[in-house]
Amino acid sequence: MPINIPKSLPAGELLRQEKIFVMEEDRAKTQQIRPLNILVVNLMPEKEKTELQLLRLLGNTPLQVNVTFLNTATYRSKNVSKNHLDLFYKTFDDIKNRRFDGMIITGAPVEKMEFEAVGYWQEITDIMDWAKENVTSSLYICWGAQAALHYHYGIGKYELPQKCSGVYSHVITDLTVDLVRGFSDIYVAPHSRHTSVSIDEVRQHPYLNLLSYSDDAGVFIVMSKDTRDIMVTGHLEYDATTLSDEYFRDIEKDPAVELPKNYFPNDDPTQIPLNTWRAHSHLLFSNWLNYYVYQETPYEWDYIDEYVEYHI
């Protein structure tokens, strides 16, 4: 089934070239089907790249998906045009009276800052509070994952001696959990962050399950025991060249920046890196959409039953 997007969204043509089934809004309205409504809070600086990465994964399942992009009202990104934001993005005030089947909060380039010092922190916490009653399942990525762990579960972050950048091996703690159904016993995934969270704090938390971790990169996938919050500290959505783009950007500012680990062939940055995590990227997103959004969301939100909250 297709992913439904605005007619003129730039990512649409690229998705069509990749044979992702894209349906424009006008045609989607003519179909007698209840699509999933997914809210994407896009905090990444290069928003159009992130749009393409997430739409590619959301559009590769049998489910029809409507995507609404949300931008913070308290901060305007400098790396995307105002026209793009005005055409394709909404603010929290625009959508706070709606309900969504799923929500994604992306990473953000503010991880070295204390959470409360981030200019849009209050807005993000308002969104996370609103999601408790108005979203079936929330997927938090990188800084978004750390923000959710901090705000909902009281787990702080700490700064690493050097940036965690590269492609790392991970293990699964419980292969019977639907979110990791189909995952290999060992798989790789990209990380790109300056901070981390304590694996012991996650393991000992009464309302959290640690589903996947790396001996080198630490905590990776965490899920709340009510399954409504899923935190992923890395970037399975990244393209093959995203870490490369970040490396060459960073090295212009600091020539001493280290190469991403296990990424460039033969550790040679002149060689083109391969995407060795693509299959698990699609598995994670399709499992999330199927088992935690589609299977759990009410057909009509007006009839949703009360649920038990595990947030602290």
Automatic annotation (TrEMBL):
Reaction(s) the record says it catalyses: L-homoserine + acetyl-CoA = O-acetyl-L-homoserine + CoA
Keyword field contains Transferase: yes
Site (Important for acyl-CoA specificity): 111
Active site: 142 (acyl-thioester intermediate), 235 (proton acceptor), 237
InterPro entries: Class_I_gatase-like, HST_MetA, MetA_family
Stored CDD domains: GATase1_HTS
Record function comment: Transfers an acetyl group from acetyl-CoA to L-homoserine, forming acetyl-L-homoserine.
Protein's UniProt name: Homoserine O-acetyltransferase
Gene that this sequence comes from: metAA
